[in-house]
Amino acid sequence: MHPYQVKIGTQVKLSEIDPNDQSLFPKLTKKNYFKALEKLNTQLESLQELLFAQGKHRVLVVLQAMDTAGKDGTIRSVFDGVNPLGVKVASFKKPTPDELAHDYLWRVHPYVPGNGELVIFNRSHYEDVLVVRVHNLVPPEKWSKRYEHINAFEEMLVDEGTTILKFFLHIDKDEQKARLEERLKEPSKQWKFAVGDLDERKRWDDYMQAYEAVLEKTSKKHAPWFIIPANRKWYRNLVISQILVDTLTSLNMEYPAPAPGLENIVVE
Ligand code: ATP
Ligand code: MG
Questions:
Q1: Per the domain annotation, does 4 fall within a domain?
Q2: Is 9 a domain residue?
Q3: Where residue 180 sits, what CATH number does that domain have?
Q4: 85 lines ligand 1 (CB under 6 A)
């Protein structure tokens, strides 16, 4: 099992997990990092092409994190170079009135990957047991049942041919402070600063508790959670890229067999 995979049925204490850990790539220099990432990007590109060509497997990547933890940066770096034809990103923001008029999985299901597709959920149905729980948007009797629904939903997707990987980008509160300050003073980053992020920051401990519940209750063999040390962006990118490459490799995909008689065709 991968060292960052959440073991089923164990207690998770995020305060005891080091967001600066770099034990999987201990001696990497910046120059080597770019080389290593480029190599993984190339591997991922080929694997995704194969996924698309074979049109058999479906891959769902779920990204969850606190503000500034790097969901966007991860998507940019890890999927650099993949063919946009077969990769889609679905971002889940505050639900619309129409979405709120339905069950919470209603808006999610249409975006799950089809055959040959890789879909990245930038936030996800997990918001309905995170922000919703922290802000009491629905009563506890309601959100507390959702872990089971989510497990059943994901199990169904897996039974029907989807591979699910879920990544929690783990930064600490000091790192978030530094990144928010950077957004405030760097003109090219100011557009990313949202005053609302400060309100969420005040609820950091509540969020950590809500994340711990998610990680404990919904990491399954068929749909594991990985807690990715994410204070260092390069490390986060390498670890996630490597997990994706390893997982896609383990699918043992093959290009579809050529149509019969192809060897006799002459292109004039
Ligand atoms: P970025 O800030 O990097 O652009 P983001 O994912 O934070 O990305 P925002 O538009 O800033 O995007 O925030 C989306 C907000 O929508 C988050 O605060 C999130 O908690 C909230 N949200 C997502 N799903 C739900 C939900 N089901 N119920 C209530 N709020 C939700
Ligand atoms: Mg935001």
A1: no
A2: no
A3: 3.40.50.300
A4: no
**The ligand 1 atom nearest the CA atom of 122:** 6
The tens digit of pLDDT for each residue in 226-246 reads 999 999 999 999 999 999 999
Q: Could you tell me where the beta strands, DSSP code E, fall in 131-196? A: 162-170
What average pLDDT does range 110-118 have in this prediction? 97
Token pair listed for 2: 């991968």
Minimum-distance ligand 1 atom for the alpha carbon of 131: 20
Q: Which of 98, 106, 127 to mutate to test the pocket of ligand 1 (most atoms within 8 A of CB)?
A: 127
| pTM above threshold 0.90 | yes
Closest C-alpha residue for ligand 1 atom 25? 94
Q: How many domains does the chain have?
A: 1
How many Å lie between the centroid of ligand 2 and the Cα of residue 212? 21
Phi, psi of 63 (to 5 degrees): -115, 125
User: Quick check: 30 pLDDT over 80?
Assistant: no
Q: Tell whether the model's pLDDT for residue 189 goes beyond 80.
A: yes
Averaged pLDDT for residues 36-41: 96
Ligand lying nearest the CA atom of residue 92:
1
Q: Is residue 268 part of a domain?
A: no
Asked if residue 89 has its Cβ within 6 Å of ligand 1, the reply is no
- Within a domain: residue 153? yes
- pLDDT, residue 162, reads 98
Residue 122 · residue 64 · CB < 8 Å: no
**208, two tokens:** 């950590």
Domain range holding 206?
A: 14-250
Structure tokens of 230?
């994410």
What is the distance between the alpha carbons of residues 92 and 130, in angstroms, rounded to a whole number?
13
